[in-house]
Amino acid sequence: MANLQVRDIDDRLYESIRMLAKSDKRSISQEVVHILENFLSRPESFGRNPTDEFLRLAGSWEDERSADEIISETRKSRRNSTRFEKNNELFD
């Protein structure tokens, strides 16, 4: 059986994996293999090819407003978010 070594894992990611492993009564290695097997067993979870998606959308935007008007409206509609504040999610 092959071995895999992963370096420089974020401490919070490692802690999340450790907690999952503990709750599932697995070792960390077993938990990582389990996560990979689950992800790879569902090809639809990979998403679409970003290049293909971009090309599919190219030319599909139609708007009477100028680019400056669109940018201005976008900036005005933004709200402050705590999404990227420390300790909010795994990858703050």
Protein model, in words:
With 92 residues, the chain is mostly helical. The protein is built from 4 helices and no strands. The chain has a domain at 10-42. The chain is elongated and about 60 Å long. The model has no long low-confidence stretch (mean pLDDT 83).
Describe this protein with a few key phrases.
single chain, 49% helix, mainly alpha, 92 residues
Strand content: under 5%
Count of β-strands: 0
- Measured as a percent range, the helix fraction is 40-55%
Note the run of SSEs as H and E.
Answer: HHHH
Summarize the structure.
With 92 residues, the protein is an all-alpha fold.
What topology does this entry show?
Layout: H1 11-23, H2 28-40, H3 50-57, H4 67-77
Helix pairs in contact: 1-2
